[in-house]
Amino acid sequence: MYVCICNALKDKELEAAARDNSGTVADVFRRCGRKPQCGKCLPEIAQMIEDARDFGQPSALAAE
Asked: What global pTM score does this model have?
């Protein structure tokens, strides 16, 4: 599914870039070789980064 229409970036491509230790939305775009255009997709990409960070954190159950 397209997330960024301006740059024709799909969710899988953006999610992969977000998992690649991206600190900011600009980092995700940079990894995709693009720049943000209109900005409508920025909140969704920011959520992808947050989800990638949460997924990378060890769970409390794993520590037990």
From this structure: 0.80
